[in-house]
Specification:
alpha/beta, Ribose 5-phosphate Isomerase B, Chain: A, 6 helices
């Protein structure tokens, strides 16, 4: 468990509910402080940009937190989350992607595709995302400052 992560916020649209609930269970069992931002019913249709705003609003005053956001493809929530200057979201479907995106780009939100991912692989991506450090060298910090 990564002790530098204060909280893990999770949000999903209706297509991502099942994966989100599984990840909450796994993260809680691993000792993380988890905040479920909804939705919890796959029959409750919500727009993914609204869930991205909910996640961004929750994370704005908690810079040591990380977020996980889920929709059917992962692309919609990634695009919507990246509208917020304090969010650096990356859609990943392999653990090495999640690790590299943290290391190189200090991503703080992981976007996942509920329709396309095996839940065990999704959890491996989450573990890599939460356990990987950012390589805070000058050139990487400079690049991130240009988008934040």
């Amino acid at each position: 468990m990564n002790k530098t992560v204060s909280k893990v916020y999770l949000a999903a649209d209706h297509r991502g509910v099942g994966l989100k609930l599984y990840l909450i269970e796994m993260l809680t069992a691993s000792g993380y402080a988890v905040v479920n931002l909804g939705v919890d019913d796959p029959e409750t249709s919500v727009d993914y940009p609204d869930m991205a705003k909910t996640l961004a609003d929750a994370m704005v005053d908690d810079p040591k937190s990380r977020g996980i956001i889920i929709c059917g493809t992962g692309a919609g929530v990634q695009i919507a989350a990246n509208r917020y200057r304090h969010i650096r979201a990356s859609r990943c479907d392999r653990p090495d992607q999640a690790r590299d995106d943290r290391y190189h780009d200090d991503t703080n939100v992981l976007a996942l595709a509920a329709d396309d991912m095996d839940i065990e692989v999704a959890f491996l991506c989450v573990q890599a995302f939460l356990d990987s450090p950012f390589d805070a060298v000058e050139r990487r910090i400079r690049r991130i400052e240009k988008i934040s």
